[in-house]
């Protein structure tokens, strides 16, 4: 049989770890987390399945390996918590992006001192190099076991699973209901850190028990952990909620409601510029602007399927005994625009764009600044086209996405999600649409990965994942094929043959949620928004009152040149004014003292530390305008806000 690419003679009932050890060098084997046969992950202590033809190692540094290390670290943490706080009850502890958590039912919140103590205990358990052992019990035996340990949440989980048998993993005195696999011993966990505590509800249900969630992270080695912790530290400095206050852009006010954003003058201006840019860019690319109402009759949501499939995430209201749904998506009005008149094959594609405000009922626990909100604006479009136009339409959207991500300086990659098990539409339709998606990306030379079976039931899609300055990944753009809605709403066009045909519909967003995109952009740039988006592009600072008249003249000059400028005439020391302008991340400071007044000039300082120095007013305006336009020139675009 093939073991790590080598042909090896393997005995029946051989142990995975032993077999891999034989095929690998000592150094390589030290970094093996679990074994893999086909898609099945196996503990190193498991026997090689009799039907296995190729056994591969899963290394610690791979995504799969890291996930197992992190989940094993969650078990290790639970072991330590139970040791230090025996009355704490355990619930679940999954690995998540960049780490893991475990939820405990405990009489009080854990403190930072508790976390230190837990970490120290975890290190002792790592030192003891305890084994992770697996046993399979009947559900009845497992329930008895967990009842004896007073672990009522585990009992509930087993009852809900309704399986005949369950597997249990033990490390030290701690036993957990778990599918596995796990690292072989606690000594394999080489680099971890507990990060924070937060409240959580059992099963995310606010009517159930309040739990204490401890977040942590783990890596294959201390160096990778150190790098990640440094990034977290930097992310804290760049937290968009903190910067949003510092830059006076927005606030989230509980008097209004959780997950709802109030935009202050500067933030509303940033939005207005972004939205104005998007509208113009869409018009240039052959889209038409449309706009629908915020609330639509319940019957329409029944017809679209949202009422059956998405109702829990929607808000409803009643007027004159008629129930209305507040829109969570913008599709319906757009389809009604299409249906408003007879369409010929020559009229297609129709591309409808709307900066559509949507409301979605996200659970309160997941709300986070601008990144997860309940009310947001999507840069949403629906492209309704003939099947033979699908590929070109997708190319157009993908190119649009690429242009905007380049403009903002985000690296990006694409993921294609294909037909899931439960799906509507014929195999032929799915194949055509999936081919159109992959074909379009191939033609553009865009890299992509495929998530087999991960598409929505109504069609395949492309997700664009962007990478920010801290190497965090965010999903913004999506391009989604849809076979259901054109059917449910009986969309049609008259073909060349004079007969009625069903068009294809693409839903697509580019920035996604404007709120979320601004949040990501703030963290990506550390608040130093590109000059074209900065609410104030130049700040004029005077040394004393003697320069006030000239400062006003400079202000007027810049404004006439289309530069957003402000003047700080306060009777404060220059150093203080400079520091404040720096905190506001203003791209340019124009300093005026007696010397500058005499020379009818300004002393220019840039936010990035560059010091262009003494410039005439024309030169200063030219310098700032160049910085504003630079990102567009780079991409062969042009834009001005007005
Ligand atoms: Zn587990
Ligand atoms: Zn849609």
UniProtKB/TrEMBL annotation:
Co-factor remark: Binds 1 zinc ion per subunit.
Catalytic activity, reaction form: tRNA(Thr) + L-threonine + ATP = L-threonyl-tRNA(Thr) + AMP + diphosphate + H(+)
GO MF annotation list: ATP binding; metal ion binding; threonine-tRNA ligase activity; tRNA binding
Cofactor dependence: Zn(2+)
Positions that bind Zn(2+): 331, 382, 507
CC annotations in GO: cytosol
Gene3D superfamilies: 3.30.54.20, Anticodon-binding domain (3.40.50.800), Bira Bifunctional Protein, Domain 2 (3.30.930.10), Threonyl-trna Synthetase, Chain A, domain 2 (3.30.980.10)
Coiled coil regions in record: none
Keyword Zinc listed: yes
Subcellular location as annotated: Cytoplasm
CDD domains: ThrRS_anticodon, ThrRS_core
Residues of the TGS domain: 1-58
GO biological process, one term: threonyl-tRNA aminoacylation
Domain Aminoacyl-transfer RNA synthetases class-II family profile stretches: 239-530
Quaternary structure note: Homodimer.
Protein name: Threonine--tRNA ligase
Organism listed in the record: Maridesulfovibrio hydrothermalis AM13 = DSM 14728
Upper taxonomic lineage: Bacteria, Pseudomonadati, Thermodesulfobacteriota, Desulfovibrionia, Desulfovibrionales
